[in-house]
Amino acid sequence: MKQISITAIIEKEDNMYVALCPEFDIASQGNTIEEAKSNLTEAIILFLETADKAEIKMRYREPAYVTQLNIEYA
Q: Number of folded domains in the chain?
């Protein structure tokens, strides 16, 4: 079994949570953060298990660097 570390960005939109994997440009959603994360994981696994190796290589981008900034303003 192979393992890969990827980024999951989860944002609240209205009454749902939208999850995005920027490395493969795959998105999913759920009613909770955990559900959105689980659905995104499932979508990525399905992609990796069914896509041609050339497509995986073509779509893959370097891992995203995600951080938070503390900004003071007037």
A: 1
